[in-house]
Amino acid sequence: MLQLPDNFPDWFSLNWFSPSTLMGMEWTRPFYLYLILAAPVFFLLFNLLKLRFRRKTDIALFESKPIRQWSSLLRIIPSILFTLAIVLVLAALARPQKTSEQVEQYAEGIDIMLILDTSGSMELKDFRPNRLEAAKKVAEDFINGRFQDRIGIVVFAGDAYSLAPLTTDYDLLRANLQTIKLGMIPNDGTAIGSALAVAVNRMRDSNAKSKVAILISDGENTAGNLDPTIAAKMASAFGIKIYTIGVGADGTVPYGTDVFGNTTYVETRLDETNMREIAQIGNGSFFRAENQNALQDIFKTIDRLEKIPIKETRYRNTQEYYPVYLRFAILFFLAWMFTKNTFLTNALED
Fold first, then answer.
1. Residues of the chain with pLDDT under 70
2. Domain VWFA spans what residues (predicted)?
3. pLDDT (0 to 100) of residue 259
4. Within a 13 Å sphere around the CA of 74, how many CA atoms are in the beta-carbon half?
5. Backbone phi and psi for residue 115, each to the nearest 5 degrees, phi listed first
6. d(CA 146, CA 193)
7. Per residue in 159-192, pLDDT tens?
8. CA quadruple 139, 140, 141, 146: dihedral positive or negative?
9. In whole angstroms, what is the distance from residue 334 CA to residue 350 CA?
């Protein structure tokens, strides 16, 4: 018995002949569809030849003008029924099908902790609109490119806090990123060691295949009571790889505007030594980003380095619908057989 999906009409519904239904089918033997186009031409030629060569009987009739009755048009009904039956048989031979495919993706996700500096120096405008907002935008793009990875967020200035735990709720992560702003941590400074310690504390009990911390900062450690190298050694002991990204250009960079609206500048210089040492101890890499394009490229590099292959399982279900059109063909053929025994046909010709 033909089983139809819920979104398909019953087999006797005329919706089977709607353009949307026919166009949605996959015809595995399209050759028979071309024969359907030829069927009306064939029957037209057949009837013309039949009319030309059929035998005629001479009958003497009174001279009069023949009167045509509308009922004589009913005699074409058997031919129409037979033609439709043949067309539907050809449609069934074309093997209409509907294939549904379900794709399941899975991967052994990794744990990633984003550690973002929110100190006052992140307000510098060598990035647009400033260093912090540029880092947030690139971090969001990084999150959007991950699949089944748990990601968390740590923010720091003079103190460090866990903003978001490790989670695969990427909507939550994006919402938390939008809440990050300059001055959100009252105690200003750069507590890199404390930030790494908070990240380690969040990841130490993780059983993920790979654990990664990405530290984004523009300065050296100036706050907190934990040396960054000690924190990096703790991370290494728990199998956490550390990537450090130093943001900002050296030299004179725009800072803001004065009371007259003029741009103000400050001298800045990134001390790479400490950041490189942290990355080395954490078995990772140090990157330097002096502009937003470089920062984007760095995140793309990290994304490639820490990408776990995504595996797919595909399930294909093919449903045959030729029985529907075959049933219609049988109905029209039986109707044609029935009309053969009625006034609609000429017994002398058949």
1. 1-11, 47, 50-73, 103, 105-107, 310-312, 314, 343-350
2. 111-302
3. 74
4. 10
5. -115, 110
6. 27
7. 999 999 999 999 999 999 999 999 999 999 999 9
8. positive
9. 17
pLDDT of residue 134: 94
pLDDT score recorded for residue 155: 97
Q: Quote the CA–CA distance of 214 and 32 in Å, as a whole number.
A: 62
Task: For residue 308, give the DSSP letter.
Answer: P
CB count in 10 Å sphere of residue 299: 21
Residue 167 Cα distances to 153, 174, 305, angstroms: 10, 12, 21
CA 158 distance to own-chain centroid: 41
Residues paired with 103 in a beta bridge: 314
Residue 107 per-residue DSSP state: -
pLDDT at 1: 43
Q: How far apart are CA 73 and CA 84, in angstroms?
A: 18
Name 14's Cβ contacts closer than 8 Å, sequence gap at least 6: none
3-state SS, residue 311: strand
For the chain, list the domains and their CATH numbers: 14-52+73-101+317-339 (no CATH), 108-309 (3.40.50.410)
| Closest C-alpha to 142, from 180, 179, 117, 113 | 113
CA-nearest of 114, 209, 217, 118 to 167 is 114
